[in-house]
């Protein structure tokens, strides 16, 4: 496993991260989930990502119990707040009140005294950015979190927060968590990648395998019921990605991977990691073989000519 600095901060995270959206505490049974977490840790993954809303809070609780088997110092835990977690009018957003109350709940669920990276799950247009920045700064000063970051913020949103933090000498965000893959390259087009690169804000990208579409498992066959596409409860997002046009591109990815004696998933993850500003790729799995395939990307070096060829196939 390789490790990279999280932006300009001093801590390092595994280039392959372990995510829990829809899987841990959700569609994966408890025995399998525990085994996946153990496999991830034993193979060098230290970055575990979750959020207070994943599986109605069950994701944090399951991770808290499973990760308690390991030394806390060997883990880099990340969670998030923003989305409503109850009907309470203040139990949402990025107000000082909600941020403070959310982190306490996440600390209890994760069974830890501190969270390594606490993130704004989305931008809150109803709360002044200065209020949010000061809230996260306070949590760092109190030792409840070590770093803070954002997720799915625009370039202007991120720049506004960085400007506020610099003006008032507050701890600034060290990371951004955007969707990014061969099939979803918005951060290259909307200025987020360039701004974060210039300002040392690490990218911890989610859905680097495009909900599993880039693994090739949906090409030339009907989606099995134990896959995300084949599960009516969880396939709302992946159905939009698994279009005929995209699957034709994945056919070419499969062909290139075969010639390199590797897998489409390994190639797709390595493509994401071609840029140093990508600190980690957040992957998820429902089976051990999927996780083991993802882990291979941590050591795979993608040739420059292959990067160029993939860019031609999966145009921005």
CATH topology annotation: TIM Barrel
| Major beta sheet, strand line-up | 3-4-5-6-7-8-9-10
Shape: globular
Total number of domains = 1
Distance between the termini: 29 Å
- What percent of the residues sit in helical stretches (DSSP H or I)? 40-55%
The CATH superfamily label reads NADP-dependent oxidoreductase domain
Class from secondary-structure proportions = alpha/beta
**What is the chain-wise order of helices and strands?**
EEEHHEHEHEHEHEHHEHHHEHH
Number of helices: 13
Proportion of residues in β-strands: 5-15%
CATH architecture: Alpha-Beta Barrel
CA-based gyration radius: 19 Å
Provide the CATH top-level class: Alpha Beta
Major sheet, described briefly? 8 strands, parallel, barrel
Stretches with pLDDT under 50, minimum 5 residues:
none
What is the averaged pLDDT score?
93
How many β-strand runs?
Answer: 10
Task: Walk me through this protein's architecture.
- This protein has 316 residues and is an alpha/beta fold.
- It has one domain: Alpha-Beta Barrel (TIM Barrel).
- The protein contains 13 helices and 10 strands.
- The strands form 2 sheets. An 8-stranded parallel barrel has the order 3-4-5-6-7-8-9-10, surrounded by 4 helices. A two-stranded antiparallel ribbon has the order 1-2.
- Helix 2 packs parallel to helix 12, helix 3 packs across helix 4 (96-110) and helix 5 crosses helix 6 (155-168).
- It starts with a strand and ends with a helix.
């Amino acid at each position: 496993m390789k490790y990279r600095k999280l932006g300009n901060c001093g801590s390092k995270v595994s280039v392959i991260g372990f995510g829990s959206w829809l899987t841990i505490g959700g569609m994966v049974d408890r025995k399998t989930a525990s085994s996946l977490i153990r496999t991830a840790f034993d193979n060098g993954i230290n970055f575990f990502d979750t959020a207070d809303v994943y599986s109605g809070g069950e994701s944090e609780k399951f991770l808290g119990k499973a990760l308690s088997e390991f030394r806390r110092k060997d883990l880099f835990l990340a969670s998030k707040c923003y989305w409503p977690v109850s009907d309470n009018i203040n139990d949402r957003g990025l107000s000082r009140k909600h941020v403070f109350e959310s982190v306490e709940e996440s600390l209890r669920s994760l069974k830890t005294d501190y969270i390594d990276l606490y993130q704004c799950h989305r931008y809150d247009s109803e709360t002044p950015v200065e209020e949010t920045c000061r809230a996260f700064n306070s949590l760092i000063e109190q030792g409840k979190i070590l770093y803070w970051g954002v997720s799915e913020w625009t370039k202007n949103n991120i720049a506004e927060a960085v400007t506020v933090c610099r003006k008032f000498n507050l701890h600034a965000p060290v990371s951004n968590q955007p969707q990014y893959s061969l099939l979803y390259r918005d951060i290259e087009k909307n200025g987020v990648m360039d701004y974060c690169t210039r300002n040392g804000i690490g990218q911890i990208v989610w859905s680097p395998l495009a909900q599993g579409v880039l693994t090739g498992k949906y090409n030339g066959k009907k989606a099995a019921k134990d896959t995300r596409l084949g599960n009516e409860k969880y396939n709302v997002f992946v159905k939009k990605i698994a279009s005929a046009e995209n699957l034709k591109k994945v056919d070419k990815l499969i062909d290139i991977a075969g010639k390199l004696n590797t897998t489409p998933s390994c190639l797709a993850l390595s493509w994401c990691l071609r840029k140093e500003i990508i600190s980690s790729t957040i992957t998820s799995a429902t089976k051990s073989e999927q996780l083991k395939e993802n882990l291979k990307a941590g050591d795979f070096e993608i040739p420059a000519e292959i990067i160029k060829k993939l860019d031609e196939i999966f145009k921005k």
